[in-house]
Design a protein that fits this description.
single chain, two-stranded antiparallel sheet, three-stranded antiparallel β-sheet, 5 strands, HPr-rel-A system PqqD family peptide chaperone, 95 residues, 3 helices, PqqD-rel_X, alpha+beta, Arc Repressor Mutant, subunit A, globular
């Protein structure tokens, strides 16, 4: 069985304000204030980058941001937790 792939909701404009990403999710009508690393995770699976597995998301984050010294397993655990939360909120879906 293939790993689950995730993608950000395509209709999700956002604005950065005082260190938070303010995201209006049109499908639910809800506005979310997101702190790091959530905006970075959403950027890693934005529609222009395509869906990705957990391992692919971690690799994209490592390529995009200076993550020297961070254990890949620790990063993957944090990303997995945030993906679960994002899925429940409707900001991320299985591809």
């Amino acid at each position: 069985m293939a790993e689950r792939r995730h993608i950000a909701d395509a209709a999700m404009p956002s604005v950065v304000m005082e260190g938070f990403a303010v995201v209006y999710h049109a499908a639910s009508g809800a506005t979310h204030l997101l702190a790091s690393p959530v905006p970075e995770i959403l950027a890693a699976i934005a529609p222009d980058r395509g869906a990705a597995t957990l391992d692919e998301i971690v690799a994209r984050l490592r390529a995009d941001y200076d993550m020297d010294g961070g254990d890949a397993a620790d990063v993957a655990a944090v990303v997995a937790e945030r993906l679960d939360e994002l899925t429940v909120s409707g900001l991320v879906r299985a591809a």
